[in-house]
Design a protein that fits this description.
- This protein is α+β, with helices and mostly antiparallel strands.
- It contains three helices and five strands.
- The protein has a five-stranded mixed β-sheet with strand order 1-2-3-4-5.
- Helix 1 packs across helix 2.
- This is Protein NATD1.
Length: about 110
């Protein structure tokens, strides 16, 4: 008898919690308490400048606005820490375009 494939489903009642690991320079969301994680990676490229480099969500979880939570957390971090940001990651560029808050826009380096 064939076994059913495991389906990765986010529990709708479980809020997504973004964790910020400053040492590893990443934001992450643990998905369903499993080993699966969505991550946003950044690097300092100057004393007060970061490069938001890459966002990745496991394929089974894509299309559920998980990356949006990571992008918001990263941009809020840039604002809170009074940093400037390069947006190398296409998804963060898209997020800022869709959420053109002045406190975000004034911190982006072109």
């Amino acid at each position: 008898m064939a076994q059913a494939a495991q389906i990765n489903v986010l529990d709708i009642n479980t809020p997504l919690r973004v964790e910020h690991d400053k040492k590893r320079r990443q934001f992450s969301i643990r998905l369903n308490g499993s080993h699966d994680r969505a991550v946003l990676l950044y690097e300092y490229v100057g004393k007060k400048t970061v490069d938001l480099q890459h966002t990745e969500v496991p394929e089974a979880y894509r299309g559920r606005e998980i990356a949006k939570h990571l992008a918001k957390a990263a941009m809020d971090f840039v604002v809170e820490e009074d940093l400037k940001a390069h947006l190398t990651c296409w998804y963060i560029q898209k997020y800022v375009k869709e959420n053109p808050h002045p406190h975000y826009l004034e911190r982006i380096l072109h």
